[in-house]
Amino acid sequence: MPYIVALTGGIASGKTTIANLFAQLGVPIIDADMIARQVVKPDTPAYQHIVAHFGQHIVLPSRELNRAKLRNIIFNCPEQRLWLNQYLHPIIQSETQQQIMQFHTPYVIWVVPLLIENQWHKYADRILIIETSQQVQLERLQKRDKIDKNLAKNMISSQITSEDRRRYADDIIINDDQTADLSQQVTQLHKQYLKLSQKII
């Protein structure tokens, strides 16, 4: 099993940007968000369970889940968000472990937005935190998801604070709009992770 570097950070902190830089170096990327989409495809057990819980109004004509509608529900109702997380997270984690075990590379990057909140940090060998200011987060999130400021604030506040997240960090990358050396930082960490992975072989 490869050395596991968990990459996490607040919503819209730029996790995908950093993960893509690692991918350019040939590092496999395991993305928890992508897995979350895979396990709720139409007609999967998880899909059927979620539709039974929330109702047919969260289903698009294409039969895919209406993610925008579901997002509005769970980020305005903590009880519904808790229900969905408690149901989906064990399924996502099981699939994640299966995917990681398929790789025979020195290490993998495991992108997990809610790594700390879900207490999944215990499955990682090392934790890389991506940080940015809350103002930059807010602007990116509104632009990316085409949502209003209140929903964006609710989404950000549903996660732990940057200060709490830092307590778990082995490495930190600041990814604000002024950062010009992201590629260089990733390359340096890549060399470090290759050395660390050799120690456990």
TrEMBL record:
<comment type="pathway">
    <text>Cofactor biosynthesis; coenzyme A biosynthesis; CoA from (R)-pantothenate: step 5/5.</text>
</comment>
<keyword id="KW-0067">ATP-binding</keyword>
<dbReference type="Pfam" id="PF01121">
    <property type="entry name" value="CoaE"/>
</dbReference>
<keyword id="KW-0418">Kinase</keyword>
<comment type="function">
    <text>Catalyzes the phosphorylation of the 3'-hydroxyl group of dephosphocoenzyme A to form coenzyme A.</text>
</comment>
<dbReference type="InterPro" id="IPR027417">
    <property type="entry name" value="P-loop_NTPase"/>
</dbReference>
<protein>
    <recommendedName>
        <fullName>Dephospho-CoA kinase</fullName>
        <ecNumber>2.7.1.24</ecNumber>
    </recommendedName>
</protein>
<dbReference type="GO" id="GO:0004140">
    <property type="term" value="F:dephospho-CoA kinase activity"/>
</dbReference>
<keyword id="KW-0963">Cytoplasm</keyword>
<dbReference type="InterPro" id="IPR001977">
    <property type="entry name" value="Depp_CoAkinase"/>
</dbReference>
<keyword id="KW-0547">Nucleotide-binding</keyword>
<keyword id="KW-0808">Transferase</keyword>
<comment type="similarity">
    <text>Belongs to the CoaE family.</text>
</comment>
<keyword id="KW-0173">Coenzyme A biosynthesis</keyword>
<feature type="binding site">
    <location>
        <begin position="12"/>
        <end position="17"/>
    </location>
    <ligand>
        <name>ATP</name>
    </ligand>
</feature>
